[in-house]
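One such given next:

>
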Amino acid sequence: MLLNFNEADEKYFWLTVNDNVMGGVSKGRIELLQSQMLLFRGYLSLDHNGGFVSVRRQLTHAALAGYNGLMLRVKGDGRDYQLRVRTDDQYDGIAYRSVFSTYANQWITLTQPFSLFRASFRGRILPTAPVLDPAQIRQLGFLLADKKQGFFHLEVAWIQSY
């Protein structure tokens, strides 16, 4: 088990990065629910050339070395989200992303192989970037940038490596 959200201080490990870093006005945040779930929620706005909300947390160095991917249990709102990892501790830079679909108010278990993660920078795929090395993953997070203005919510029960 990589993350199961049963520690009250888990919320302090997460960093929110929304489009306000470039003038947008979207609002995204995380909460830890009493049911020991992570809740990523807020409002995605397209105003002022905005359109993304994200949360992320650092991981222990080499926590995913030797693993093939991530499994997660989520309940969403019918929108498409990105599961994102980074191979450094930087605030900005290359992220590796895997897009997944949710179904409104339905729990699903997803398997996200590292081989399907694609390198991107500020929304653009980088076809010449190095292949993702799980041993180098230092950050993990979620991003919503589906160009659909409105409220969103994504509950996460757990994340594990396989």
In short: The radius of gyration is 15 Å.
